[in-house]
Structures are given as structure tokens and as C-alpha cells.
Amino acid sequence: MYSKKIDEILSENKIMPGDLVKIEPDGITGEIMPKPDSSDSCILVIKLKNGYNIGIEFRPETKIKKIRGADFRFEFSGEGISEVAGLPDIALIYTGGTIGSKVDYKTGGVYMLIKPEELLHEVPELSLIANIKVENLFSIASEDMTYTEWQKIAVRISELITNNKDLRGIVITHGTDTMHYTASALSFMLGDVPIPVVLTGSQRSSDRGSSDAFMNLVCATHIASKSDIAEVGICMHNSSNDDFCAFIRGTKARKMHTSRRDAFAAVNDKPMALVSQSGDIEITNGYKKRRSIGGQIKPRLEFEGKVALVKVYPNSDPSIIDFYIEKKYAGIIIEGTGLGHAPVSGSHEELRWTESIKRAIDAGIIVGMTSQCIFGRTNPYVYRNLRILSGLGVVYCEDMTPETAYVKLGWLLGNFKKDEARKMLNQNLAGEIKARTEFEE
Ligand code: DGL
């Protein structure tokens, strides 16, 4: 942990990580943190009252005085928090992202944690909520995720559920940028899960005073360990205050902001629940109920990688569709304008999408239509131009987000025959399509 000298001084004064101390002559008060592996062993890490962690160089004149003991236990056994009888068992799968990053006190740069259990050291209050076993599946930024990583996560979740009948829930820490794609993929791949599968992350790393990592992790752990919502979902800040996190259905969640802590929204849906840091859970939507774990869970893992997500915009060139025909793609989701438009009768004939879309459908490619409005529902009937596209065989994807429709089409084409996949694209399978659009949503 710390240097031999610091360790000796700490043990002489019976000071443990988590204790409130005063450091002299600097006059700084805060809680002693367990030392991150990568920083200098002569730097003492203190969590200030405002939430910031700072590194203080331990000099010959440095004195450290204990003010009071820790609020939380800091006992860690190998890969998890040591077990406490009566607390629910949950698994935490670490995959990378900002939630697993910290500032290196020596260089000032953010780095990914080498050992994911360090995450638990940062949030000791988790030890009061659940017995958590942490595992490091991989450590990547979410923009680098592919369907291979989605499959790995789905396999691991299935193994955990199949082999631990007492498991209450699973938390997955993940980069936020593509968390909603992964949430959709897991929703389709895993089908009906018997326990909560909760993805969480953070917009700001755990060393910033404004970090959302702690609250998101605490709230995700509450949902996983004691809610009866047996669904795949995303649990992140509900507003920029630290009052509640929202647990949003995996197929209806979307990242809507680059930096705000309340970046995730339920699109054309309400969150399934709001959860506070103290563990109060308010149900705000319908959901599938927790069941006892029995038998194997058999995920459908295949994914057709040759599916594209294409955006329409004024002056957009339809030959992008021909590019995908040539590349032998199996599916294309179009992010159309408004109710689901692509240009069909503009003054520039070469910019009309009709012929290219027809060629794609004739080549056996499934073409789905979503809306770049994000909120609301596509409709193939209102305008003549829409009827022309649906007449060609374009599948209107109801109120699905473009990202969910993209993931769904790749998954359908991986697991079902083409005709079935086409039919299922606009049928609800995992909460991705709601029958009615509610005004408040
Ligand atoms: N690029 C980001 C990602 O992994 C890092 C930031 C984050 O976790 O939100 O998604």
C-alpha cells in the first residue's frame, strides 16, 4: 500500500483507510483513502469533505492525527468485499470506461484502474448494501466495443445466473458513450432474465468532486440487490442533482448529452424506477418481475455484423446504399427525417433515395426506417412520400430508437431466417416498441 514509513506511522497511530484525520503542518482534514497502485508510495491520498481526493506528499515534518474512525468498513477479500451474513450476493462485471478511471496523483492524468476491485475501495459504502464479487472481463473505452464484447458480456451473465442460484443481481460497469447499444444487445441476447441486470457508468471520473461514479454505483447496487425488476437496464443520474438515479429499460435508453451527469434518458418510455442513494426505490413504469433462478439461461448470441446505420439529411447522396449493396450487407437501418422520410421526389434526381432503396430490397437486404427526431413514432402512411417508401418494402420501426433498431436487426439476422427477421423487426420483443405513444414521455 503506502511506503513502509507511512504504513508504520499509520499503524502506530491505529489509523486505517476510511478514518478521518488531520494532516499538519498542511492543516488538511479528510478521510484516508487506500492508496492506488500506480501512484508514488510517499503520497498520502485524502478524500476531502467536498468529495475531491487529493495527494499529499509525506515529508519528514508531516504529522497525522486521527479525529475519528471510519464511517464504513474497508475490508476487502481478494476480488470483492468480505462477505457479511444476511447481505444479498451480487456480481459486478467490470468492462472499462470512466467509472473505472482515476487520477494518478503523480502525473495528474486519468488512467483506467488496473484492478477493478479498486472501484470498491473508492465506494466503501457498498459494503453495507451487498456482498459483491468483482470480475474484470476486459477494460476498454466503450467506443471500442464491438458485438464480440457484447457476446462476451452476455455469456458471462448467463454463466453467473446459471451457476449461482442465490445471486440477487448483476451490475456491469461500462463506458457511457455506447452503453445504450450494449444494453439493447444484452436485452435481445439474454431474453427473459430472472434477476436485475444493471449497467452503470459515470460521466466524470471518481476523483472529481462532481463525480457521478459513487452515486451511480450505489444506486445500481440497490437496484441489483433489492429491486424485483428482472430486466436489463441502465442506472444513471436522473437529474444533475444527487437526488435520484433512474433505472431505464435497456432497449429504451439513450445517451443524450456529452458531459452532463443526467445524460441518459428514457426515449418514448418512462424509467422503470427511481432510486435514491439511501436505497428507496420508487417504481415508475411497468416491468418484468424477479423470479427465482432455476436451470440454465440460454442466450441467443449470434450477431450479423453486416448491418449499417445510415443517416438521411438534405443533399445526402443515396449511393451510400449502393455501397452497402456492393459490400453484401444483410440489413440497413435508415435514420430518416420526421416521421421516417428519405428524399424521394426532390428537384435533383440523383439525390432521390428511391432507386437505391429498391435495389437494396431487391438484393434481399432488409431496410428499416427510424427517425432522427429520436422522440416520437415513425408512420408510413401520413404523406405520399412515406407511402412510396413503405410501398418499396421499407419496414417502419415504430417508436424504436435508431440505435436499438440497428442492434435488433443485427441480432435478428444473426439468429433467425431472413423472412422471420423481417417480420420481427417491427414487433415488440424486449420492450423496444411501445404500442402507444404517451404525451408525457
Ligand atoms: N469514451 C468514453 C467511454 O468509454 C469514456 C467516457 C465514459 O465512460 O463515459 O464510453
Structure write-up:
By secondary structure, the chain is α/β, with parallel strands linked by helices. It folds into three domains: 65 residues, SH3 type barrels (Roll), CATH 2.30.30.520; 195 residues, 3-Layer(aba) Sandwich (Rossmann fold), CATH 3.40.50; 118 residues, Rossmann fold. The protein has ten helices and 23 strands. It has an eight-stranded mixed β-sheet, with helices on both faces. A five-stranded antiparallel β-sheet has the order 4-3-2-1-5, with helices on one face. Strands 20-21-22-23 form a four-stranded parallel β-sheet, sandwiched between helices. Helix 3 packs across helix 4. The protein is elongated. D-glutamic acid binds next to loops.
Query: What is the CATH top level name of the largest domain?
Result: Alpha Beta
Q: Which strand order does the major sheet show?
A: 11-8-12-13-14-15-18-19
| Helix fraction by DSSP (H/I, runs of at least 4) | 10-25%
Small-molecule binders here are: D-glutamic acid
Span between N and C termini?
50 Å
> What is the strand content?
15-25%
| Low-confidence blocks of residues | 73-78
Average pLDDT reading = 89
Question: How many structural domains in the coordinates?
Answer: 3
CATH overall fold name of the largest domain = Rossmann fold
Put the structure in a nutshell.
By secondary structure, the chain is of the alpha/beta class.
Secondary structure elements and pairings:
Elements: H1 4-12, E1 20-24, E2 28-32, E3 43-47, E4 53-57, E5 63-68, E6 76-77, E7 80-81, E8 89-94, E9 101-103, E10 110-112, H2 118-122, E11 131-136, H3 147-163, E12 167-173, H4 179-190, E13 197-200, H5 213-226, E14 232-237, E15 244-249, E16 253-255, E17 264-266, E18 273-276, E19 281-283, E20 307-311, H6 319-326, E21 331-336, H7 354-362, E22 366-371, H8 384-392, E23 395-396, H9 402-415, H10 418-424
Parallel strand pairs: 8-11, 8-12, 12-13, 13-14, 20-21, 21-22, 22-23
Antiparallel strand pairs: 1-2, 1-5, 2-3, 3-4, 6-7, 9-10, 14-15, 15-18, 16-17, 18-19
Helix pairs in contact: 3-4, 4-9, 6-7, 9-10
The structure holds D-glutamic acid.
D-glutamic acid (DGL) binds at residues 97-98, 141-143, 175-177, 201, 203.
